[in-house]
Amino acid sequence: MNKGYILQRVLRKALVFAMLAVTLLAIDMQAQIIRPEIPRLSLTGNEGGYNQAFYPDGRMWVTASGDPSLYNNNGPRYILVPVFMKNCWASKSPYTAAPIYSFNFKLQYDSTALKPVGVLTRGPWLEGSHPNVRYVKGDSASLADGWQITWDEARDTTYQVQSGLITTTNPNKYRGKRVRIAAQSPRPLPLTGDPRNQDCNGFSYMPLLYVRFEVVGRPGLGVSDVTPMIITPDSIYYNKLNAALESPFPGDINYPAPPPLDKVLAGIDYDRLGFEPAAVNNIRKGMIYVHVREAGRFDFLPKPTGNPNEVSVVNVDDKDTLFQLRRVVPFDPILQQSLGQARAGIQVTLKPDGVRATNVTIESDAPWLKFQTKGTKNPIPAPTRFGRIAYIDKGILGPPTGLGYPDAQNANLPAAIDPLLNLDIICDPAGLTDDPGNTPAVDYAGRYVGYITFKSDVADIAPVRLKVVFLYIRTPDEAYDGVPPGDDWAKGMQIIVRNSAPIPQSSKLMFGTGYRATRAADSLFGEFAYDVAAPSGFYARWFAIDSAGLGPNYFEWSNGLGDFTGVFSSRDVRDITEEKTLIYRCRFNAGGSNNYPVVITWDPNQFPAGAQLYLRDIDNGKLFGLDMRTATQNPDGTRSYTIRDEKITAFDIEYTPARATRTSDLEKGWNFVSLPVRPSNNDYRQVYPNAQGTTPIKFSMDIYQAEEQLRVGTGYFIRFPRKETITISGILVTRIDKDLYPVHVYGGWNTVGSLSVPVTVDKMDFQALNNQTPAPQRLSGVFTYLTNQGYREVSQIDPGKGYFVKLNGEGFYKIQADVTKSSEGVTKGDVLASCASVTVRDNSERENVLFLTEGRNNIDVNQFELPPTPPMDWFDARFSNNSYVESGDNATLRFQGVTYPVSLTFNNNKATYTVVEPLTGNVIGQVNNGNGKVVINNERISNVRILVSNTEAGNYDITASPNPTVGVAHVSFTLPETQNVTVKVFNTMGQEIATLVNGVVSKGSTTVDFDGSNVAEGTYLVKLVAGDFVAVRKVNIVR
């Protein structure tokens, strides 16, 4: 082997090892301690300054104790004073640092300001710097945690003298005391860094322990409100070494005895130059100044200005213990769906100036109620139900040009005041349920109350509660026709009201219906009542109204309805179960006459299928009215209406939902019906699926007409095979006129329909066909047809029924739901109450009631005219004058569609009635005054004559003899007094044959002859009329 090659390999290995040694030496010098250092104590937690997390300006600001009889958080107040240590006492060759198993030191204080009450090994740990100091933990373990600690206190007249702050003659030294703290443990004192990869400069100052003091000083009492706390530089023992005076390695130049002060104590070292503010004092390492201040109180911003929709905080009890967020915090699950939660921002502060609250805790009492901070001061960056804040400062921190002071070293630190604490109040709907992963259903909609509690041991009043009302809004029921609502569009319907100013102004309004909504301001649906008047400039708002146009509790809502979400200028949601046309009234101010025209715009896609919406002026549509589905269309598909008249400052929207239901009771046979609602499909087979074959029939232009497509406002005859009750669903009908539901009517009889609600007949009206013709007038009563009773005159129009009415001309049917009492029905009722009644009843229990006036011929029976006779197989009963009232003495009664036998029951009659067969003259029966019944068994008889004889008058009599006769019959009658008399002879057809007497006849008996030789064989009727007395006798002529 080549020796030179071997030598090269040896040299290369030696070089590698040499380089590695140099590298390791460099690493050792850069990353490890050079030599052990005596532990250093500090009251400010920093080598040459202060820990800004604990002391933002290098001072300790404490709150004076208070009088517990004054406020709820007064009484003794306590502070925890951390004693910090940097421990870099670690062996480093050639030095051996013996582990520390014991220590003791003295802490001086002003006995007129503070009183020691204990020593703790656990306390708060703070991180960060002003203004973002985070309260990391409240019971963080100190270096001496687990050690056995003893302490005692004694007077110490070296207070401030030993540190060179005052002279030995200054009496303030007599206020000094010291607490000596001694500790020992079988475990060595922990280091505050890692000697393996840090030098001593990288070691931290950590709390060694905490001394608990009671604050006994008061602001302004001598100098006890600003006093130094001092770790004495003459007695600091670690094991048996007094590190303040002795060297751990005697004779070593690196460890002189006594050591320099900065080798055992750390902190601020500053001497006044004479121009500093009074708050800046001479200070040495191992010291901190304690400033005693009055306690502050929690306060909140913003303050209310009067707008109910603003986020502001009110002092509920005026005692600073209970505050309330003035407006509710709303969450609309449609509008705010993407946000997932509702928020309201407030600011937390203190009052008065020059106070500080430390260890502030904030906690909510409801799972849905959370909070977080935002902005420059952000100690609680994430939503939570519990949080801590190291301090809230008001007027202490900040530049001396403001309310603050320079720091303990006269530096302009912090450079800014403690910012207001911006607190976002979060109302999370997920917290309303047991399943926080899902947004709650509509069943959770409602008003929820929660409280956020603020605490601080040093606040004048604590705890303080902030009341929060969370409104989980119930959305309106209306939704798009197949168009899913997005974040920009809530459920419900919307309009936009815009003026024509140079820079147009507009307001968006929402309306609809919902479960449990009312006409009032429903917070459940996001509504509130404005408590401030509408602005003098442009605005548009909904106003609640009642039938009088004022609204219930009108003055409560006289300023209109608002929207808690702020998305709309106004909301108005009504009861979904209210079965009538809903009227939404909007009042607006264009902001001046020059800002007209005003344009109202809407999107018909928002209207529910089948619903009817009608826009009109508030004077019931006298100025304008239009169907909102067919109004002027804009290029973008919306529709609009333009108001040009500056005198118009309000309008109504009539909304008729398509969800009304009505039931109709139908009899077997023919029924007289009309649509009680507007169905989605008006084919009669869909509306009445069990109708029996025949197409519905209406009566118009003097004829019956078949019609398959049923129309609102028209009456129809429909036949059913059996008795049943049906339910019809559709849109409420509360008005019928030529604009909304045109029903063409003609002179004569017409079949008309009903509304969805009952109204009296005096609400029935008619409109002119055009401007050249007058409106038709009603000539008759209003009749319905009952399957088992025939026609009945009515005083009320009921939903689902059909009606006959007779007119004097052509026009349009008009009726509106506005119920008042009908005077017409009362007048006719008086007439009928004085008449005798005849009930026509057949063997199938179908019946009708007719009336006889019993000789009172001054009654106009035309007002009782019946509608046209129905087809022959329909039950009907009427007099020959086509009326249900007859005033003649010989009335002819006709009936059809009956099942024999047929009975005629007389009631309330004062006369005697004889029922005869018209063709034969045969008497079927007779009823004397009072009550009685005549039965007709002969199926060939479909009409009878009713002859009247008044037997109530005394001393009247009439006879005919002989009877029967072949020639002359002697008619004798007796009168109680002289009076005008007629005696006439009629055949059974009612035709007059002869007049026997017509003039004044004296009192007593009179006889006249009836010569029957010139008339045909048969039965004749002799009728005597004397004043109110009427009598009829039958005379038979035989051959």
Describe the structure.
- The protein is mainly β and 1039 residues long.
- It has 7 domains: 1-31; 40-123 and 138-271; 297-472, no CATH class; 493-527 and 551-656, no CATH class; 660-829, no CATH class; 835-853 and 872-949; 957-1037, Immunoglobulin-like (Sandwich), CATH 2.60.40.
- The strands form 19 sheets. Strands 2, 4, 8, 9, 11, 12 and 14 form a 7-stranded mixed sheet that branches. Strands 16, 17, 18, 20, 22, 24 and 25 form a 7-stranded mixed sheet that branches. A 6-stranded mixed sheet has the order 31-27-26-33-37-36, with no helix packed on it.
- The longest helix has 29 residues, at 3-31.
- It is rod-shaped, with a radius of gyration of 53 Å.
- The relative contact order is 0.06.
Keywords:
3 helices; 7 domains; 4% helix; 7-stranded mixed beta sheet; disordered N terminus; 1039 residues; mainly beta
What is the secondary structure topology, with strand pairs?
Elements lengths: L2 H29 L8 E3 L17 E4 L14 E9 L15 E9 L3 E7 L1 E8 L2 E10 L6 E8 L20 E9 L21 E10 L10 E13 L2 E2 L22 E2 L20 E7 L3 E5 L11 E3 L6 E4 L3 E3 L10 E10 L3 E10 L4 E6 L11 E9 L26 E7 L18 E10 L8 E9 L20 E6 L7 E9 L12 E3 L9 E5 L17 E3 L6 E6 L6 E8 L8 E5 L9 E5 L8 E3 L4 E2 L5 E5 L6 E7 L3 E7 L2 E5 L3 E2 L5 H4 L9 E4 L2 E4 L9 E5 L3 E9 L2 E2 L7 E2 L2 E5 L6 E2 L3 E5 L13 E5 L3 E5 L1 E2 L5 E5 L3 E6 L6 H11 L2 E6 L5 E6 L23 E4 L5 E2 L3 E7 L5 E8 L2 E5 L6 E5 L2 E7 L6 E7 L7 E5 L6 E8 L3 E9 L4 E10 L2 E8 L6 E9 L2 E9 L2
Parallel strand pairs: 1-13, 2-14, 17-25, 18-25, 27-31, 57-59
Antiparallel strand pairs: 1-3, 3-10, 4-9, 4-11, 5-10, 6-7, 8-9, 11-12, 11-14, 15-19, 16-17, 19-23, 20-22, 20-24, 21-23, 24-25, 26-27, 26-33, 28-30, 29-32, 32-38, 33-37, 34-35, 34-38, 36-37, 39-45, 40-44, 41-45, 42-43, 46-55, 47-55, 48-54, 49-53, 50-55, 51-52, 56-57, 56-61, 58-60, 60-65, 61-64, ...
